Fold:
Amino acid sequence: MLSDFKNQPRKDRVIIALDCEADKALSIAYQLAGEAKWVKIGMTLYYEYGEELVKMLKKRGYNVFLDLKFFDIPHQVHGAAKSATLSNADMITMHAVGGKDMMQAAIVGSHEAAEILRKDDPITLAITVLTSMSEDDLAAMGVSRELNEQIKCLAKSATDAGLSGVVASPKEAAMLREVLGPDAFIVTPGVRPAGADLGDQTRVTTPKQAFDNGASHIVIGRPITGAEDPIAAFREIVASL
Structure:
């Protein structure tokens, strides 16, 4: 089961972020079929190609992380989570700052869809603080808590609402593992092999450090999707774990 991540090898918990145009995304996914277990679809690809892209990737044998970061009134998020789950996504996201009622509405919507499909409920994750943001960014938005305190507060509210876990930077993974316990999903973007371009990420570790810090899954995009040989790049990352 996907929920039993502790018994899965690290290589099967690497999520390839297909944050590129659809033709390239599908090409890379087809190349890595049988190597990688997970792919991530973000809002850019999904808004252009919709649930058909999820279905195509499922047919290739992938678990699909549909990262649409829901943030709206509970009624809208209930419907969004239900639709996302009906596309056969295995993992979905929402912003923790949407509050308890919104997050619980997402759980209800995703459960309703899972019952229709006769499958397990998807993994539900809350965004804490985006990995592109710094403490200065939070202060500019009027958030008075220190970065780590804001992340802990949002993470606790998410799991109290019943979500499977959170999305956070790998630098906070150890702190969150202590706060949330051994069973919570802690999915970490902001992961780069040593020496790689950091792009727009500000809170970054290597893949091995992220897992050592307590991440359940890591998300890696450009170091693989931008490589001349994506298979070799993926295998090099796996070897480093």
About this structure: The mean pLDDT is 91. The chain has eleven helices and eight strands. The first strand starts at residue 14 and ends at 17.
